[in-house]
Amino acid sequence: MSSKHVLQPRFFHALSTCSVNPSPFVNKPDLFSYPLRLLYKCRDLKSLLQIHGLLVVSGHKQDYAITTHLMNSQSSTNPTVFLYNSIIRAYTNEKKHEEALKMYHVMLKEGFQPDKYTFTFAVKACTGALDLQEGVLIHENISRRGLECDVFIGTGLVDMYGKLGDLGSSRKVFDKMPKRDVAAWNVMIAGLSQNADPLEALGYFKCMQQCDILPDSMSLMNLIPAVSRLADVDICRFLHCFVIKKGFNEVLSDGLIDMYSKCQDVDAARQVFDRQRRNKDVSWGTMMAGYAHNGYFIEVLELFDCMKREKIKMKKASLVSSLLAASELRDISKGKNIHECAIEQGITLDVSVVTPIITMFATCGELEKAKALLWGLQERDLVTWSAIIAASVQSGYPGEALSLFRDMQSEHCKPNEITIRSILPACTELSSLRLGKSVHCYAVKVNLDYDTSTLTALVSMYAKCGSFTEAVVLFNRMPCKDVVAWTVLINGYVQMGDPYNAIDIFRKLSLSEVRPDRGTMVALLPACTLLHDLNLGSCVHALILKCGFDFDSHVKNALLDMYVKCGSISSAEFMFNFTEFKKDEISWNTMIAGYLLSGLAKYAISAFHQMKSENVWPNAVTMVSVLPAVAYLAALGEGMVVHACIFRFGFQATRVVGNSLIDMYAKCGRVDYSEKCFDELKNKDTVSWNAMIAGYAIHGQGDSAIALFSLMQENQVGVNPVSFLSVLCACKHAGLIEEGKEVFDSMCRKHHLIPDLEHYACMVDLLGRSGLFDEIMDLIKGMPMEPDAGVWGALLGACRMHSNVHLAEVALSYLVKHEPGNPAHYVVLSSIYAHSGRWDDAWKTKLRLNDMGLKKSPGCSWVEVNNRVHAFRVGDQSHPQFESMCTLWNTLLDKMEKIGYVPDRSCVLHDVEEEDKEIFLYNHSERLAITFALLNTEAGSTIHIVKNLRACVDCHTATKFITKVTKRKITVRDATRFHHFKDGICSCKDYW
């Protein structure tokens, strides 16, 4: 661009001295149908070559008759240097650079001496042809003739070397120039901006002004790539001020938008866009590309819709950015809309547009449509093949990607390094080391395994397939290990659950000459998470601050995830709320999941609502993160709000979201809604069936669970250990002993699955509820592995139901070894002693508990009223409505006692004074929650209570009497299952 700016005045006089007036070619285009007539009238070489030059410019050079006549005419005349220059210039301006260089060599062969104009055009041709070797030869010829210091030739050489990447030669030529005008400085800055250290380009820009050369618009345009590469928004703003001061803001609006976008200040880019948009001189494509570069894909599609509304003709850049946005958002509806727009614009035959269309369809899961478009192309180039292969892998179709890779080779389209790097993740996804090795062999065979990027992709494939021996050998053989290669190996160890080797590789990287980058830190932080080592994570955080990587959003999100999973939710909150943190959907999702992991389900739901209020769009991961929080609290109202959001954002067809909805509704007490979600889910997988069976299980619907399990097998859906665990839990809660035994037996005999400790614990619980202690002990003795706390805990629970003191003591002796810090086991044993009348042993057990400094988890119940969750602890008298609740309870108690309710005082330990025992019973958390709900809900509505512990016998009995007195339905979800109370009867049939 700079060269053209400088050279244009110097060859203008050539046109003004033509012996043939060019006006007939300009004003009367119909004369072009008679070019031979004009050529035959030529009587001198000057006229002949003048017509030749004009024909080249006008695109008529390929006409066979004209070409033949020109060759014959030229061979019979005497050419001059001036006329050769005209032809070379004409070819160069038409971007026919090879032809221009051929004419230059013909000129030399004929013995004519080039002048400074010849060299100027020839150097420009070398630049266009990207022919450095030819450019060096021409430069040598220039030096021999002493023309190197000519400002015009020097500028051309500086431009050529800069654009062809030889900045050393570019600097040498520039330094030799005795006089440097603005064009020379511009091409020097342009070369440095694109290829070298961007700070050097800024240095030349400053030096240019010190030499009293005033920058023009081209100077600033050439400097923009340097500022963009630095990603320094302060320099960006300084340059913008300079642009405004010089009055170039309209000319450079596109460049400013692009620069701000690459400096991650999209808001400033949008301000420039909106200001210039009124003049219609700004490129929509640049703004859309800027949004896409920063991941603002929703904004890209909003601009697309705006262009359609304003009926602005879309260029390729706008369509390509829109297609990328639709692909990233998996918005197939919008993608089809963009495709239709491309058809209307008539550019669907352009491979640069068709390729992203194919990628969009493949990424959005419509692989058949993508393949149809691929096969519809007359010429399928390497870029298109590589794009659809990569999109197929990223969309979860690794098998299809490998099939396309074979089709590509059958069409004799030779893969390149990019194709190899695209297909290797398919082998990883299929966990097929054999296929990965085959691709490696192919790469070696066709000599595509030489560059660092391909070798890095191979190391990644071997590492992710668990073949670290090959990965390390290949890594060690790499002639040049860049930071990406080191990071890939660290990431491979982390993904295979080996944090020690990951940290060891990082230490070796630190000792090498390669500096870790932001990606390295993102790969390393999960190693701290695997070790649950907060101190190590804090050290990595300090290193991130030292290296200046803390501004990167990916690094920040990785730090947030590390703090959350290492149990420091306070550190995560501080980063999230009190530091300069750009909150995207990933960071919000991390906080939501972190709150849930820390047992702060209420905060998780609050974060979800705050996320929406700050206009950050939730994605499918958000829904899957917040639904378990809703399920934990059994907050049905909140769950329905989240379900409405799922419909609004179009995630209802997403399988993982559908599975979470099934689980959420079941845990919120609405198994009927779970059934509806299950029936409407079209692409069910094993997890879907398991979630529905588990829903039936916690509601005590054993028969429904067994029936669904049978239907699952009839439909040839793969069953797994979780499927069996869910069915066994259903049998346990429903007292289906024989059915449970049959399911457990079929697990090994029919399905060849080995039961694990959870299955054995479930069977112990199932048998224990019926008092089958002999069968339990036989089962435990026959276990192929040592029983864990879950198995012995199930036995202890069974002993409590049947007051089996002897086996309870045996169970506790093992539990003390497995879980010495769990107070619940001592509480259960103390309760068993109390039920058996062994008060001294009960008292000693409690003293032992106190001596060990262990405390029983207090009972807590919560209820959702008017979309707000209210929590109550045992003995809690702090609620503002406590007096009203006491009055109501006394009224209920009188009515309950009249119809036969008698408090079971054995539920309270004997050390409590007799007159206080009933007060303790009356203050149990679920009774507080029930009385609060009775006061604050409409008559006839169902009350939903959640409790963190197993419901005691007396509370269970009292709740049955309450439903009889109030004619209300009450649902209680305790630590083991759901209890549906109605008219004095519980769905568990007193079996829990």
Ordered list of secondary-structure elements with their pairings:
Elements: H1 2-16, H2 23-27, H3 35-41, H4 45-58, H5 64-75, H6 81-93, H7 97-109, H8 116-129, H9 132-144, H10 151-163, H11 167-176, H12 182-195, H13 198-210, H14 217-230, H15 233-246, H16 253-262, H17 266-277, H18 284-293, H19 297-309, H20 316-328, H21 332-345, H22 351-363, H23 367-376, H24 382-394, H25 398-410, H26 417-429, H27 433-445, H28 452-464, H29 468-477, H30 483-495, H31 499-511, H32 518-531, H33 534-547, H34 553-565, H35 569-578, H36 585-597, H37 601-613, H38 620-633, H39 636-649, H40 655-667, H41 671-680, H42 686-698, H43 702-714, H44 721-734, H45 737-749, H46 757-769, H47 773-781, H48 789-802, H49 805-818, H50 823-835, H51 839-851, E1 860-865, E2 868-873, H52 882-898, H53 914-922, H54 925-936, E3 943-947, H55 953-966, E4 970-973, E5 978-982, E6 985-986
Parallel strand pairs: 3-4
Antiparallel strand pairs: 1-2, 1-3, 4-5, 5-6
Q: Can you give me a brief rundown of this structure?
A:
By secondary structure, the chain is mainly alpha-helical. It has 55 helices and six strands.
